[in-house]
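Follow-up to my earlier ticket, as requested here are the two runs.
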Amino acid sequence: MKSATPPLSLPEDDAEWVSKTRKKKQMNELQALGFELTKLSVDTLKKIDLPEELLEAIRAYHKINSNSALKRQVQYIGRLMREIDPAPIMDYLATLKGENTAHNAYLQRLEQLRNRLIADDQALTVLISQQPHLDIAALRTLIRNARKEEAENKPPRAFRALFQLLKSQLNLTDTF
């Protein structure tokens, strides 16, 4: 006599069912994301706006010396990561790594604006008319110093400072 094996039964709603393999893969991905967070500085972590418990777990990771304890701490960080939305963290890390195309395009527009400001006085007039809140005196000084550095073949200190000033004071949604 043959023994009949019962048919496999799936949950009523297939949309909610996730295989054990998929769950484990998701947990490993979150653990890897948490491990990436351990490599960041405290100041950078504060910019991400992480829950306090996760920040404390990351701080504790930096104090641990034992390899097995480090592994357990990474697993704990991964478990804490399951309770938060990882998308903003992944976006921020992509921006830090230079993988975010929108952020890269923004930085390129800033570089183009800086180059136009150094090359042409009229560009500053146009910029001031469109962005009256800018620190005009600092802009003029940095532009003048950047031109002088370029003419004398000196290190581009003011050139970089001009970029940082533009980055901090501008919201480049439209091109100039």
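Run two:
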Amino acid sequence: MHLNYNNLKIGRSISFCLLLLFVTLLNSCQSPDRANKQDQVKKPGEETLIRVNKNLVKNEEQKIRDFIKRYDWTMEKTESGLFYLIYDTGHGKPVGKNRAVTIRYSVSLLNGDTVYASRKTGPLTFLPGKGEVPKGLDEGILKLKEGDRAKFIIPSHLAYGLVGDAQEIPAKATLVYDVLVIKVK
């Protein structure tokens, strides 16, 4: 009997690969009890986070509703949580995705402090839907047309979130935008 060293080497390599595959599969399979225990460990923490987040959103929405009531505005609310009011209607082209829009604006906090305004920085031009501005402004501006004036109340999760903008907008800030659409290309 004549043994070929190359055949023996290939046979060992295949055996080793099969053994490695078997061990990997065996380790990746968990018993249902072990998987359930892991889920039970994760769920209480996840449920707590979900509950805390729901409370934060609920509290922020109540502050927004109190603010709206104070000014006696009649605003609509989108599914995402954006509040908006179109208080002067223009007659120009509608804003659309991939259509550059130029606006005059002021941005303030619920306490009335103005943090940004186009009278200081100049008008803002951007492409809606491209993430160039806060998500809430992107969403709201798509409801307008050239010449429209609107107010948007943007909850923090649609604005600058938990961190703010590291300049003028603090963490978890609700923003009040007053905008005028001056041009749509």
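The only thing I checked on run two: Confidence is low (pLDDT under 50) at residues 1-9. Let me know what else you need.
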